[in-house]
Amino acid sequence: MARTESNMLPLGTIAPDFYLNDRTSEIHNFHFKDVKGEKGTLVFFICNHCPFVHHVIEEVVRIANDYRVQGIGFVAISSNDIVNYPQDGPELMTEYAFENSFEFPYLFDATQEVAKAYQAACTPDFYLFDNQDRLVYRGQLDDSRPGNGIPISGSDLRGAIDSVLYNRAINPNQKPSIGCNIKWK
Question: Which of 82, 90, 151, 176 is the most exposed, having the fewest neighbouring CB atoms within 10 Å of its CB?
């Protein structure tokens, strides 16, 4: 299990647009504007097989369910090379999304251009944008990692989302996410 940290895209970066296919819904293509929330948007990179993603996915889904109704948009993106990692392919993405009760799009980045635009490095990798599409948080869900004994709380990400919702300053000293590296072609 490789431990790769986020690249920490500069705060204030405008959300890179994308046009990606979703194998998990009746709508098959999405731009950033299609997933954007009224008050903010969380873009996060995951994949089907990463043990770091498996460790946190229930909390990520809880966070999405808690905050979607408050005006935060959510979108998950998988950018892994499916030739060498077929378990991350679009058909299995649909199954993974269903098994984990995703109520948000799970998009496939076949060219890996979106991951490059976001400077994504690992799974999971989280990017929170405000209602002006400016990056206000990038980093970890919380301090829990597989095997470290720290309970999953989502505290870092929840704190950032709450700050967006309640117009509070977000601490710019943010901890990077740690996970499996994105499997580049």
Answer: 151
Q: What is the pLDDT of residues 90-124, one digit of tens each?
A: 989 999 999 999 999 999 999 999 999 999 999 99
Residue 68 domain boundaries: 4-181
Please tell me the distance from the alpha carbon of residue 32 to that of residue 62, in angstroms, as a whole number.
22
Contact 72, 37 (CB under 8 A): yes
In the prediction, which pLDDT does 21 show? 85
Number of domains in the chain: 1
**How many Å apart are CA 81 and CA 132, to the nearest integer?**
32
Please state, for a pLDDT cut of 90, what percent of the chain lies above it. Answer: 92
